[in-house]
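**User:**
My hope is that you can spare some time for a protein that puzzles me. This is the protein in question:
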Amino acid sequence: MTAGRCEFLTVEQTAVVCGIGRTVAYQLARRAADHGEGDFPAVRFGKQLRVPRRKLEDLIGGPITLPTDPPTNTNDDHPQPAPTTPNTTTAQPNQPQLPLAHP
């Protein structure tokens, strides 16, 4: 695992990435893992079916980004600050605003 990024995807995650149904993805994964048939890059760990991320990226021709992946920072030397929400508290009409005390 590389910095929180899974190197093996579940068959369900793979189905979403490939835009196919869950049942079809499991059929392809079983055929590949158990019989070596087809191009679907599935492997079996005991009873679990998994798809190696790199092989799937090679198959679809580009990188995969999952919602569970950590965010990538393109400029590691200067991380961006987290966005802040402006204070939206306002005084009610006819209510005096008190000055802020300064230490």
User: Anything to note?
Assistant: The mean pLDDT is 80. The longest strand covers residues 48-52. The helical segments are 11-18, 22-35, 53-60.
